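Batch queue: ligand-bound targets. Current item pairs a single chain with zinc ion. No template structures supplied; prediction is de novo from sequence plus SMILES. Inputs echoed for audit trail.
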Amino acid sequence: MKAIIRIAAAVIILIFCAAWTAFADGPISLQLDGQTVNTDVAPIIENGRTLVPYRALLESMGAEVFWESKAEMATAILGSHRVQVTINNATAFVNGSIKEMDVPPRIIDGRTMIPLRFVLENLKCDVNWNNDSRTVIITSPQNEGPTEVTKIEYEETESGYHIIASGSDVFKSTRAFAYKEPERYGIDIFNAVFPDKVGTILTDNEVFNSIRYSQFNDDTVRIVVDLNDKVAGRVRLSDDRATVFIDFEKAVTAINRGERRDDDSNDPINWKELPDEDKDDAAILPELDWRATGKLIAIDAGHGGKDPGAAGKINGREVIVERDLNLAIALRLNQLLSSAGASTVLLRDSDITMSLYSRPEAANALNADLLISVHNNSAETATPNGTEVLYYDKVGTESYGITSKEVAAFMQKELVLETGLKDRGIINCPHLAVLNKSLMPAVIIEGGFLSNPDDLQVMLTDEFKEAYAVAAARGIINALNSWAER
Ligand SMILES: [Zn+2]
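Prediction returned. Tokens below.
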């Protein structure tokens, strides 16, 4: 977290626009829940906009404010609500989803200026203007404390068994875990309270026999499932993030999917029922710990459609573009991970155009546990060559239990071994949207340099694509196995 500097010294200023710009005379005061807020810098008017320092204001309502200087990004968290804005960029992320602002945040005279109404309203504050007293009247949200879990239910459907936790508001974050001996699967729901405190739901399905829940500590609700078998659940959030689902596939579905199990019992059928090519694939990969099989890996094939990405040229003629190469590798990576029993989703599986921000947004909406972006590199000159993995450990990923940097190291090790390209190491890249707008740990693989003639010769081969995909799959499985042990 070194790249992240809490806004201690920095003076953050908010821009008032819209209705208030017309009233550009006299001092402006701020009122929060009936109390005047004194700020270290008086509100000012510039270019017809009222600018107000807001750090004191946000912190006096209990919000956490982070300034990530290299990404030029401010994140405000109040209760379970999170607003992230970037300098000179009108696109904000609210609870992981894209929202457009009328005015982008700017730096003026070295000060970060952020639209106050946008930020506060998305933190669920009420914002009003009293023109007579020239006061901005802010009412902090009723429930800026933990989200209340209103009920926990169990449901069986055709495809599986589901545990459903409903909340009074959005859920901030969750962390799934699984234990051996006896086998248990569970999740912690953070910044949440459950007034009923303790309860048990008995079930008699083949996957688990009971669901227990309790207030684990002041602001964490824990749900534990007592398993009959080594099967991990998958955690999903509703679109409004106010409902958490823990989904378990029915055992027969899991077998058909060909999951390997390490229970060395009596059940060779699982292995036998794997299609031949999947069996071959699984044999070249490390065995995936069953406890990590529910972690969702979002695979992002870089570029696509109208965006070809970098091109490789021979004698000035284009022979390959990233768009196609990345997609081929991503499809193969997905196949490999599936054969190992991992849960995966491809953000694109065909040649379509996707905006840069839609990639992290999609991973956020899917509540993915890991985002892996498949790219290849290019430089201005023909000299740079080799393989590297980019990462950024942003605010809020602490609860995931593994860092982007750790994942990057697992990936890089396998990529260098398997592709034989030069080891350029792992690189901290705070400014890349895929890394800093995603809520989960995320890495970008840059396989080789299309601009380097030697790398390009290697990258044009089918062996390279296979090596890249196998290495990435191994790196991901190693990361997941290490995660499961924690
Ligand atoms: Zn690229």
